[in-house]
User: Which sequence fits this backbone?
């Protein structure tokens, strides 16, 4: 390592996805010296493959509040970085079964109770907003005008730009090979480039986070699961306006949003490919992942997309984006610390929602590290909620639980 390179910091962040970048930025804005260590390039892992849908209305008032606050953080970040991140298109949740219609009714009631802007839409109103979508089978729908999507590349750029203004240092192609623990306390890391030292280390390594946890013999119950989405190419016969609403169809497991005059369509399903990150080569590059249209999982995605958008089929001009998401047994991230190693914190397991959760997660992590508490009720996402649980100690059991959550 260059002798002139700074190696001692207040905080080391492992992983330059949006969770790590947001945490680093917030800590630096509060006066901490921070270094981010990334095994690839900045924002090149799961973050670089994300669709970035922002749906603020969640199953609880607190999780909804976190995302609503996240929008305000992003709007301020846009001003600081002079870049457009948030594309406010509005979003629709649609229901074609009584069960899903009841879910929408409950969400609308909860949303209105906390002052969230949401309304029911008739079948005719849905058709007017999305003429390119099949809507004659819908029993109910709700519309959230303040939803939209965050542009992943622009979000990454903004976190880095503002982070650098406040002194954050970033090292790429710098894989962590050891976490140094002295007397039960994290004191630094060893990397391909040498040692870095800090009394606080944040594991935000995405799909690799369970391997980083393993460096201290800690079991972090996350699993790496492959995910695909398609993006139709621009077509004069099927114009998609940039500000067309995003759509969530829980029955067909679909999500959609406009992109470059085409349409992104992704799906969560019962079938998925799991990855053992330790079996991948050291130079594995997620941005180079490819998928074929005849892959059974991609074919299923195209089939389901056709049920809601009949003009999409295997002959439609499209690209397929493939990435790896980090899932947990209950579909919620791990944020905070575990009791086994002092000074070691976690921000991982975002189950495909890391982009939209990252603005508030950065604030929460900075609060926990510097103050030991946060204004948010984080009981549902505390990192220690599965600590030492006997049924989640083996990789087989962890993968099975996470896979079941992905399919649910």
Assistant:
């Amino acid at each position: 390592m260059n002798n002139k390179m700074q190696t001692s910091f207040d905080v080391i962040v492992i992983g330059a996805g949006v969770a790590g970048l947001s945490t680093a930025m917030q800590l630096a804005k509060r006066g901490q010296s921070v270094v981010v260590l990334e095994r690839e390039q900045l924002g090149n892992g799961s973050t670089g493959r994300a669709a970035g849908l922002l749906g603020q209305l969640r199953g609880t008032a607190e999780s909804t509040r976190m995302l609503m606050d996240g929008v305000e953080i992003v709007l301020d970040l846009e001003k600081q970085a002079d870049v457009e991140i948030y594309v406010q298109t509005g979003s629709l949740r649609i229901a074609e079964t009584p069960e899903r219609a009841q879910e929408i009714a409950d969400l609308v009631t909860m949303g209105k109770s906390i002052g969230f802007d949401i309304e029911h839409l008739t079948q005719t109103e849905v058709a007017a907003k999305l003429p390119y979508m099949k809507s004659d089978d819908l029993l109910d729908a709700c519309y959230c005008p303040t939803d939209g999507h965050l542009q992943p590349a622009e979000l990454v750029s903004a976190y880095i730009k503002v982070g650098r203004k406040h002194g954050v240092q970033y090292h790429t192609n710098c894989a962590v090979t050891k976490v140094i623990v002295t007397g039960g306390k994290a004191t630094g890391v060893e990397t391909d480039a040498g040692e870095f030292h800090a009394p606080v280390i944040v594991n935000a390594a995405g799909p690799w986070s369970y391997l980083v946890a393993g460096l201290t013999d800690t079991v972090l119950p996350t699993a790496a699961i492959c995910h695909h989405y398609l993006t139709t190419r621009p077509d004069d016969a099927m114009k998609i306006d940039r500000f067309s609403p995003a759509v969530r169809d829980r029955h067909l497991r679909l999500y959609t949003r406009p992109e470059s005059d085409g349409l992104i369509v992704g799906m969560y399903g019962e079938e998925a490919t799991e990855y053992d990150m330790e079996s991948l080569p050291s130079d594995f590059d997620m941005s180079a992942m490819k998928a074929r249209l005849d892959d059974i999982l991609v074919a299923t995605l195209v089939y389901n997309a056709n049920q809601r958008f009949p003009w999409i089929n295997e002959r439609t001009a499209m690209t397929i984006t493939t990435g790896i998401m980090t899932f947990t047994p209950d579909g919620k991230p791990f944020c905070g610390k575990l009791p086994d190693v002092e000074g070691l914190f976690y921000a991982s397991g975002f189950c495909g929602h890391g982009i939209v959760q990252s603005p508030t997660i950065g604030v929460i992590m900075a609060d926990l590290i510097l103050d030991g508490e946060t204004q948010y009720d984080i009981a549902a996402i505390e990192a220690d909620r599965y600590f030492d649980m006997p049924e989640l100690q083996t990789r087989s059991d962890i993968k099975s639980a996470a896979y079941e959550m992905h399919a649910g």
Q: What stands out?
A: The domain at 11-49+153-220+329-392 is CATH 3.50.50.60 (FAD/NAD(P)-binding domain). The first strand starts at residue 11 and ends at 14. The radius of gyration is 21 Å.
